[in-house]
Amino acid sequence: MKELPWTRVKRLQRSDVVAPLQSQRHCPLCHSSVEDELFSLYDFQFFTDQQGCNRADHRVVCCQQCGLIYTNPCYTPAGFQLLFDKAGCSYGHTAGRIGEQVAWLNGQFPIAQSLLDVGCGNGDLLKALPQTLARHGIDIDEQTLNRVAQDAPGIDFSVCDFNGLKGLPQVDVITMFHVLEHLPDPDDFLAQLRSLSKPSVALVVEVPVVDRAAELQDRDVVGFFTVQHLTHFSKNTLERMLAKNGWRVVHAEAMAGYNGWRVVAEQGPVQTDVGNDASGLIAARSYLEVWKQNVELVKRRIATLNGAPRIMIWGAGQHTEYLTLLTALFELNASFVVVDSDPMKQGYEYHSLPVLSPDQVPEHEWRTGSFPIVISTYGGQQSLLEILKEKGVAAARIITLYDRTSRY
């Protein structure tokens, strides 16, 4: 490529699609329909351009009856498939924590002989566990499981529809690391798990909780109420949802360095009265006040770009869409280039801007170009900063949006 394709932003008009992307739902815990809105982002574009049909409204509400915080409307199955089709590396996962998870599982369940990982993804956790353990994994992504199974013959992988389990292997331990918050009906899924598992099973659930988000006060503009999560638990509402479906929490702990909360539950009596607790709502409001302050700090850094005729953005994922909706980044009188390392986004367009791979940028543009480069990521800011320095980019050209970051 001789010249970079500097382009003006053009946001496609939102269009209707045959299948609805979202639908209204009742509270996943108590099934009430009485709710208060806490947070919303309207007309959110999910990754690269798709003729304007990959846009949805992100609205977070709190149930007045039980206090659960959840996303409403919720994605339909067709909507989820369409909206997250190009998520790729933008989809949150805990791959970097597998070493900790394996060590913890080995210490917590030293005599376990079998384990089922729900939402196993590419099977990295199961592959890292001792081979003496009978290992099973279920996930909705058939294509990924078929590929993974060829590389891990000692592990039993099965395709599963989280909306209707047909059966489960009878194991000693079931793990759900950052799965429950993504399910459209976590209440029903927990009930299915109990009815299909053996009485002595131990259930491990880890989710992000708003209590921890309020405590940690990280600076990410994407923040706790991400578009990827359908239920936004607190410590209390997680325990109450488990209890409602016959799971008694016997151990709970916070995850170091991020907002994860891990519990171990065993089968117990079904608690039909879910009650009402305001602690999650209080934590959410406290968190949102700090989040708004952090958005203002990011806005100020974006404002320093005013007057630059050309701007490169490294990142075509979810974080950049938050910048689009929350800041004046694309309102600046400038032409843009977007770079992303994720093959799922390369070769497509984001708000009419071609998404390039880093290799498509000529070396001299890194070393001697005059345009500023905005790092549009939170968790990956430090690694991208180091990459840009290795490419010879002058520090004065690199725009970081956060003074400190943390890896989830």
Topology:
Layout: E1 22-23, E2 35-45, E3 55-63, E4 69-71, E5 74-75, H1 77-83, H2 98-108, E6 114-118, H3 124-128, E7 134-139, H4 142-151, E8 156-159, E9 173-177, H5 186-196, E10 202-208, H6 210-216, E11 231-232, H7 235-244, E12 247-254, E13 260-267, H8 279-303, E14 310-314, H9 318-326, E15 335-339, E16 349-350, E17 353-356, H10 363-368, E18 373-375, H11 381-390, E19 398-399
Parallel strand pairs: 6-7, 6-9, 7-8, 9-10, 14-15, 14-18, 15-17, 18-19
Antiparallel strand pairs: 1-5, 2-3, 3-4, 4-11, 10-13, 12-13, 16-17
Helix pairs in contact: 6-8
Task: Explain this structure.
This protein is an alpha/beta fold and 408 residues long. Among the domains are: 22-87; 95-288, Vaccinia Virus protein VP39 (Rossmann fold). It has 11 helices and 19 strands. The strands form 4 sheets. It has a 7-stranded mixed beta sheet with strand order 8-7-6-9-10-13-12, with helices on both faces. It has a 6-stranded mixed beta sheet with strand order 16-17-15-14-18-19, with helices on one face. It has a 4-stranded antiparallel beta sheet with strand order 2-3-4-11, covered by helices on one side. Helix 6 (210-216) crosses helix 8. The radius of gyration is 22 Å and the shape is globular. It starts with 21 loop residues before the first strand and ends in a 9-residue tail after the last strand. The mean pLDDT is 93.
